[in-house]
Specification:
Layout: H1 7-27, H2 39-63, H3 68-79, H4 81-84, E1 100-101, E2 104-105, H5 106-133, H6 143-150, H7 153-169, H8 173-192, H9 200-203, H10 207-227, H11 236-257, H12 271-287, H13 293-324
Antiparallel strand pairs: 1-2
Helix pairs in contact: 1-2, 1-5, 1-8, 2-3, 2-10, 3-5, 3-11, 3-13, 5-13, 6-7, 7-12, 7-13, 11-13
């Protein structure tokens, strides 16, 4: 197709992509159950996710060619906003004695940066948006996850997601479902209007727009670093650790961007078991929200998610190592 999407259509896609990222990351664990119904949600929470997914998505989709390692390393950079903006990885507000190494809360870094935001705030929204609102299929899932989703994972994964959603939301579940309903309704409207006729690369920011978005993201970091929880800012050791981590993960991002895309496995989505699994999980989660719900969330997100994040970090490191060596061929992605 030679026709290019208009500016209004592309801005609309950016808005929906930002909403999908916000809901996926914030509503899933009930950090915000109603981000689209409050001024705080629109003025602070939404811009954080919108700017991150557009800026990093520009590099992943437009500047480079998406691979599992590239998308995941970009997602880790996304999740590192939990240093400067929320200060959670420096000073987690839910404990007085965090496990710290060189000023960094290790469980929070592993879970939030290496897994949670990499998946729920970045990879998953890009993957879902591309398959529901575009004609392309460029953003891959890890192969093992795609194959699992093709089988029993079609209902197990949505059930696990629903269990966390219900267990963390409890009696507020109607607000969580309303938030996801807003996003789903907007995506349905997009398809109903026949707008799913461009590729993801067509709809993402281009070079000139990306410069403005990067400037906006930088301004957001400056403002929130100063204004949000300034008492949680670290000593010099914490700043040095932050600098080292950013240098390492930006280097990894650049290195894996040079790796050619490898064959991936595209799952055939089965919507009925996914819907049933999700609803059953939500129902069970609400039922146990006052008893074992928090324990389940810790096991699934902090336990399983942390392990998943470390496995994916190993994949990124292996890909970066291969890009340095003579092995320039493309093997199947992990």
């Amino acid at each position: 197709m030679n026709e290019r999407p208009s500016t209004a259509i592309r801005l609309g896609f950016w808005l929906l992509l930002g909403m999908l990222s916000t809901a996926s990351a914030e509503v899933t664990v009930s950090s915000q159950v109603a981000p689209f119904f409050t001024p705080h949600g629109w003025l602070l929470v939404f811009p954080v996710y919108l700017l991150h997914i557009l800026v990093l998505g520009y590099f992943v989709v437009v500047r480079f060619r998406p691979t599992v390692a590239l998308v995941w390393s970009g997602g880790i950079l996304f999740g590192m906003y939990e240093f400067l903006i929320t200060k959670v990885i420096w000073n987690p507000p839910w404990t007085d004695s965090p496990l710290m190494i060189a000023g960094v809360a290790i469980p929070e870094f592993v879970t939030l940066a290496l897994f949670y935001h990499a998946f729920f705030a970045f990879l998953l929204p890009l993957w879902v948006a591309e398959r529901t609102m575009t004609t392309s299929r460029s953003v891959p899932l890890p192969v093992f996850l795609s194959r699992f989703l093709q089988g029993s994972g079609a209902w197990l994964l949505p059930a696990a997601w629903g269990l966390v959603l219900g267990a963390t939301a409890g009696i507020r579940i109607w607000l969580s479902l309303a938030s996801f309903g807003v996003v789903a309704g907007a995506m349905w409207w997009w398809r109903r209007r026949g707008l799913a006729r461009w590729t993801l690369a067509d709809l993402m920011p281009q070079h000139r727009e990306a410069r403005w978005l990067i400037a906006g993201l930088a301004a957001l970091y400056v403002a929130t670093t100063v204004a949000l929880r300034p008492e949680a800012l670290p000593d010099p050791v914490g700043w040095v650790s932050l600098t080292v981590l950013y240098v390492v993960f930006i280097w990894l991002f650049v290195r894996v961007s040079k790796r050619p895309a490898a064959p991936t496995f595209e799952p055939v989505l089965r919507y009925r078991p996914m819907l049933i699994g999700g609803l059953v999980g939500v129902g069970l989660g609400v039922l146990v929200s006052g008893s074992v719900g928090p324990v389940l969330t810790i096991l699934l997100i902090w336990g399983g998610g942390g392990i998943f994040g470390l496995v994916m970090l190993a994949t990124v490191l292996r890909t970066a190592r291969r890009s340095l060596g003579s092995d320039a061929g493309a093997g199947q992605e992990f």
